[in-house]
Amino acid sequence: MTPNIHEVTAEIEQDRPRVAPGILSRAERTRLAERAFLGLYRWYTERSQTLRNWSPDRDIEWRSARRDPSPEVVAILQGFFAVEQYTPDYVGQIMKLVRPSHGRSQYLLRWGAEEEKHSDLWRNALLFTRARSREWLEEYMGSLRNSEWTVGWEDPLRMLFYQIIQERATQVNYLNFGLLVKGETVTDGDVTRPNPHHDPVLQHAARTIAIDEGAHYDFFLETARVFLYYFPVESLEALADVLKHFAMPAMDIIPDYDRFGEAIYRTAIYGPREYSKDVVQVALGKLGIEGRKALENGVRLSRQVPEADGRMRDTALFGSLDYGYIEDAVTRLFTRIHRYEAKYGLDQVAPTEFVRTCPPLGPDRA
Ligand SMILES: [Fe+2]
Ligand SMILES: [Fe+2]
User: 3-state secondary structure string, 175-211?
Assistant: First the structure.
């Protein structure tokens, strides 16, 4: 039977090479990535305003909070508050790096506005649980603000990967804190005993913030996938570098960080195990990378070969990246942006279009 025109078209489409007719120039890839960041930022902002426009004062039943929090809960609340209250430093410092990027710098302001609410929320938690007085907090805030948080990376790409790990780590902290304060009893094997940390108000607070942190994590993941798609070599190198040196923000300048670190470790909220399993492994999976070992081996075994434009690139690095996964994820992102732009007619004026680039040809893909 002769195939009809639709079948022929579908077959041609299926066989179409997944390679753009020419390698996009660096300037072109930068322009395309920047457009994606702006489109993503606009989509994110609308969603954030519609779905997560919560108030740290009015949306939590603070009057019902327990007034006898456990010593562990007090240490944890105080640590959460301390880390989140450096938001002005985070925004100020990171802005210097990302200000040339329209989408990334606009997003940083939005991100800062959301992070600022987290510090207000934990301040409320300390006050309403009667864990700390206003006077105590004023003094504590003064001691925290004596030190300024400084950016760990001068490179905006490294900073992006740092933010992915940091947001995921923060989300894991809040999710696990939510579990700590959840339920009136805890069961240990056959033994059931009262949960000394139980507080539904704090559970609600932790869940509210964890949703924000998840949205931040997703935004940075999407941004990183665009970089991985258009600039795979630089991105993989940046990620490997960040993983080698990662530490939670401000832990070196918060005077009593050890007490906080010990409390989250003892209560199984966060420690080396959670960092490795629930943060790094999960984040790498979302970036199409098999695991930290594969990435490190790629960096270690990489062999430099000259590219068409004279740049040297590391071939073995590509073995650690599932480029097809990244391409699918980036395609979905552009589709989502396009749908959003169609809602208000931007698609007719200045649409954010997806332009494929040439997939990298590592030794096992050539
Ligand atoms: Fe936060
Ligand atoms: Fe966050």
Answer: HHHHHHCCCCEEEECCEEEECCCCCHHHHHHHHHHHH
The C-alpha atoms of residue 293 and residue 222 are separated, in whole angstroms, by 23
Instruction: Tell me which DSSP letter residue 52 carries.
Output: -
Please give the distance, rounded to the nearest whole angstrom, from the Cα atom of residue 113 to the centre of ligand 2: 10
Distance of CA 59 from the midpoint of ligand 1 (Å)? 17
Q: How far apart are CA 216 and CA 132, in angstroms?
A: 29
Q: Cα of 109 to ligand 1 centre, how many Å?
A: 13
The one-letter amino acid at 110: R
Contact call for residues 79 and 264 (beta carbons, < 8 A): yes
SS3 content of the chain, % helix, strand, coil (to 5): 65, 5, 30
Based on the number of CB atoms within 10 Å of its own CB, is 12 exposed (0-12), middle (13-18) or buried (19 or more)? exposed
Q: Tell me the pLDDT tens digit for each residue of 6-37.
A: 665 565 555 443 433 347 888 999 999 999 99
CA–CA separation, 45 vs 215, rounded Å? 11
- Is the distance from CB of 287 to CB of 224 less than 8 angstroms? yes
| pTM confidence score | 0.88
> Could you give the domains of the chain?
25-185+194-348 (1.10.620.20)
Lowest mean pLDDT of 3-12, 123-132, 338-347, name the range: 3-12
Q: What are the beta bridge partners of residue 304?
A: 314
**Whole-angstrom distance, CA of residue 239 vs CA of residue 219:** 16
The environment of the single-atom ion ligand 1, i.e. residues with CB closer than 5 A, is 115, 118
Integer Cα distance of 100 and 96 in angstroms: 9
Q: Which ligand is nearest to the CA of 119?
A: 1
